[in-house]
Amino acid sequence: MDSVWKSLVDAYAALAAFPVIPFLFVYFVERYRSGDKKRAFRLAMDVTTAFLLGCVGFMLNRRIGSSLGLYFILLLMLIGAGLIGNAQTRLRGKIDVSKIFRAIWRLSFFAMAVLYVLLMSLELIMPSITQQ
């Protein structure tokens, strides 16, 4: 059982290092299956966000010399969900948890994609704090 867990962790780490690979794989497989470009793009975004979470969290940890990168991202996601939930309550009088989750998950994709490019560029240009 331990070797299965280690294999899953290694596979996740390899795919998270280059999140473009799972994005393209999911996009082309879903586009082939359904023929719908919009649905394929959304599904690819949703899957890739899980890989970007780990990768951007790890790069934040390396850049600032801490182990709170992933927790900081999750905190921002929770704050965003609270703000969207508050707006929904004010507008409609009730909240739709699935819409909130989907909105935060997809907004996180865009924010983390930008952070990924920025942090990866910094990683290639300048050595991180922990390497000095």
TrEMBL record:
Residue intervals passing through the bilayer: 12-29, 41-60, 66-84, 104-126
Record bears the keyword Transport: no
One Pfam short name: DUF3397
Domain of life: Bacteria
Keywords: Membrane, Transmembrane, Transmembrane helix
Signal peptide as annotated in the record: none
InterPro entries attached to this UniProt entry: DUF3397 (IPR024515)
Protein name as it appears in the record: DUF3397 domain-containing protein
Species annotation: Cohnella faecalis
